[in-house]
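User: Earlier you gave me the apo prediction for this protein. Now I'd like the version with zinc ion bound, so I can compare the two side by side. Same sequence as before, with the ligand SMILES added.
Assistant: Got it. Here's the input I'm using:
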Amino acid sequence: MDPQNQKPLEIHLVTATDSPEFTHLTRSLSQTSLVGLDAEWKPVRTQQKSFPTVSVLQIACQLGDDSVVFLLDLLSIPLSSIWEPLQEMLVSPDILKLGFRFKQDLVYLSSTFCSQGCNPGFDKVEPYLDITSVYNHLQYKKHGRSVSKQNKSLSTICGEMLGISLSKELQCSDWSQRPLTEEQMTYAAMDAHCLLGIFKIFQAKVAEEGELDLKTNKLSISSANLGLKELFKKHDMSDKVLSTQFCEALAIVQATTSSGVVQVPPSAGEVIKKSSCRDTKPMDAFLLKIVKKHGDRILLKESDREPKTSKKKRKKQLPINGISREKHIENFDEWQGTAPWDPLLGGDGCPKFLCDVMVEGLAKHLRCVGIDAAVPNSKKPEPRELITQAQKEKRVLLTRDAKLLRHDYQIYKVKGLLKTEQLLEIIETFQLNISEDQLMSRCTKCNGQFIQKPLSTEEAIEAAKGFQKIPSCLFNKNLEFWQCMDCSQLYWEGTQYHNAVQKFVDICKLSD
Ligand SMILES: [Zn+2]
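And here is the structure of the complex with zinc ion:
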């Protein structure tokens, strides 16, 4: 396909309600059935008393075969004037909202609006579909149940599904600075826009499989990329890619944003009035079926709206008289900070731990349920080394050594004595999601991940030469072997494997 025929991404920066861009936005919201949402805020240091202020809200609207991205500059628009249209969009049954772990964005967005007197902010998004579920669903369809559910980053998912790389370089840039740079605008727009692209592929797959009855559907995979792929054609999947292709893309985008593509409808006032008694377009039958089958929602609880205070601050607030500090440390749910793997802190959202020698057994158990659990780099590490490693790799340090808690880093003291107890304690404390297909998805020996494709018996024998003996009784069983990418250890789905899976299904009570 000739890239020149591709329509460039249409981006509109909305800075005021009496602007043509705002009119365009409200009109688009009344016509769309599908939006991709994302928000940007100025990164704050961990463990602050309040939530960060959202400074840009991105809304990518699908309009027929076209799409358009609106960047709402929440630092210039009076929030009270856009609360109502946003609220309507978030709960409109006529609009499916796509997001990538949007709950956190919603918490911050809500708090931002509340702080400007728009109580009660926002507490619901429905119907909603998270791109992680879309991705996991497609993976499940593709590989069956042996592939582990992973919390991949949006950038990884985009790379796999759309063949484009999103740069993460700008994620932590200063979103409160004005004017926003062209790079920031493009980045922000892409993050919302790619959600539409991923959803289109999902939609097309669903249609292809005839999972839902869809005689009327006219989707084509070719429209699934929405021009993104061509925009970043020569990608090589690395995270830095965008910077090279960025210039080309940027040139196209700049041409669009500055050429005034906007058609101005009658008058802004008229449309605002209309937005309060909007007649939105109902979803088509196909989308409605997808929503019925896969649709979800985000509901914020009271507790979600309160920033969690840090361990350090909490300790200071606690009465010291008569109660020893050690006692507080013994509180089961005392771990309260933002986890270092939190995307807010630049992490990838996947829980990661570093287990010191006192909880080595726990490390193995965590790996068995698919959780990334490393051990110290050196044999007898100093506390400082442990902390540096944890920090560097964005891990929470797990230990039974109360002395380590004095150090200013995210350390959790494990209370349980038995490995199984400890495992359940960590799952509960850090609210880890364990699913059955995640069991045995990681090398228990070294914490490495497996090579994606299983090996046949012949390939396994070849791969095991010189360091691991494969019992000959396995030879004629047509088993699949999995090899660790790091230490090359081979695993297979034998009796031991099934026993182990059953054991962790029981421990984690996954069967009910
Ligand atoms: Zn390994």
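For your comparison, keep in mind: Residues 3-304 form a domain with the Nucleotidyltransferase; domain 5 fold (CATH 3.30.420.10).
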